[in-house]
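Q: Joint fold for the lines below.
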Amino acid sequence: MDILRFITAGSVDDGKSTLIGRLLYDSKSILIDQLEAIEKQSKNKEDGEIDLALLTDGLRAEREQGITIDVAYKYFSTPKRKFIIADAPGHIQYTRNMVTGASNSELAIILVDARNGVVEQTRRHSIITSLLNIPHVVVAINKMDLVNYSEDVYNNIVIDFEKVARSLGLKDVKYIPISALDGDNIVDKSENFSWYNGESLLHHLENIELDSDINLTDARFSVQYIIRPQALKLHDYRGYAGKVISGIYKKGDKVIVQPSGIETTIKAIEIGGEEVDEAYALQSVVLHLEDNIDVSRGDMIVHRDNQPATENEFEVLLCWMGNKPLVPGNKYFFQINSRVVKSVVKDIEYKLDVNTLQKNYSLEKAELNDIIKATIKTASPIAFDSYKKLRQNGGAILIDETSCVTVGACMIQ
Amino acid sequence: MKKYHLDYLGQLESEAIHIMREVAGQFERPALLFSGGKDSITLVHLALKAFRPGKFPFPLVHIDTGHNFPEALNYRDAMVERLGEKLIVRKVEDTIKEKNLTEQKGKFASRNALQTYTLLDIIEEFKFDALIGGARRDEEKARAKERIFSVRDEFGQWNPKLQRPELWNTYNGKIHKGENVRAFPISNWTELDVWNYIRSEKIDLPSIYFSHEREVLKHEGQLVAVSEFITLEPTDVILKKRVRYRTVGDMTCTAAVESNATKIDDIINEIIATKTSERGETRIDDRVSEAAMEDRKKGGYF
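A: Joint structure:
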């Protein structure tokens, strides 16, 4: 059993909340008391059916206004997999939330209303999916019941979306016709689509190959915390605690500590207090080094023969998340994994239109939800990979020095 | 390739350890909220994996409502003794006296809401800047929206509309003086995940999680333990039932479930088969209103 984290992109009008409600309901992740609670709220509805969308609205203001304000996380499992859904609102003013939800997702479900086809919002969601480098995409063509389960409608949408996918370089794209409201093609294959030979949505989510998404080639490890017991018999113990971001580390590996560049060897590796010969991507471990050198929180331990870039000036695609605009020249904390340094956003090269991918070069400041290309200069060098190559070591956040709020998401180019 | 595959519990464990180490690395005075329940026991187990052979970089803090299950207190004391870690206990009883607080009235008068006062006092007393807690997003819908690093203002309040975006595995722990962060390492775990982890790690739990005979009252369909904290009325019928607890909070606000499950395997089977959610079945305090949890969190509750 493993974990699939996915994001659902779409608006309430596309039936996004209904789809999530349906997945939870049909996988029996909704229990009687939760169902009773939404039944109580659904009573005002004319058709008498329970409103599955109510399951995903967590805050009072959302229920009152019938909107989704923020990213919510939902959970369900089948015997094959545990699923974590990042449920992000779809409206344009919520680019920030979709970027947030997408940052941890391995798959994006892009919802298309069969009656409307590929619209501006579909393009926007696809562009964000591609910018955030989500490896797998499902285009769920919803409300097929309202177009008489028409194969032609489905085919035309597939043709339209393929153009979008090609222009954005989306790789693994799967098209599934569904009706979230009736549960068609969600868990089981529906008989309403005699012409459709593919899988149901859940079957696809359960079986998609995920292991190959994990990078086992480029070993990256960011030091989070240094374990130095005060006990006398452990006087010489000095362990570097952190999570293997990617790759594999073995006892005896020749490594370099970045950004200082000092060489040493891995003396021992511990997991949960037990010594092991090797550690691999996603494991939280403790590394011991042969030489007694200066290593601090935020430093990166990498193989001598496979090093990330170490620079103090680089280009990023930046999604601005602050309520106050970004003014070039302003200083921010730059945090990548456990390393935090001061930085300045130098020049804004252009702003990317998230609906059309057009570049606007005459820009003085960036506003909330803008995606821009900019140059960042850091006070000391950082070790990074390009976001396209390695999300976990190419994604960074900007923090406002005065408000302490996270104001930007950087994807290093 | 299977050789380098971390299974799902391994991924959840590693994520939780990563979050705890971020707390230890980013904050000067963190603490771990320990209630004696299975979620906070799981946190302690994860802390052992994160920091041994070193000491925990934080004390354990217990807010003692005075309405605890004695089994949970015994477990707490034995555990602290065994681990040699620091435990700080503050009593809600003392806060009530010091601050002249008014206690809830009625049959199941609970101190659950008053805990918040003691919690905010202890944060001030020790100048804690981060508190690790065992809340999970699957528990309740307001919790589904909360960040892993959740900032509280100097009054301990949560503002759901002004949460920081949280991206990748990068946690922003920068705060102003007086603010604090509540950090939730097992945010992404479900009730079943916790039980599966307890089983695979063979974690010891207080005996009340397993089937035992107990005197209970039936109250709105829920079974509440007869204890000195509950006012009995002449019409009350005391039943003897075989029960276990799905969650362990106060004796006044936690209900038992009828069960013969004496082993973890049996409990897991019961949870898979159950038709009612964890909080729905066992928490008397969430039944007050649709937004009960959201309101308490906004006021400083965990």
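Q: Anything notable?
A: Chain A touches chain B through 75 residues (CB under 8 Å). The mean pLDDT of chain A is 89.
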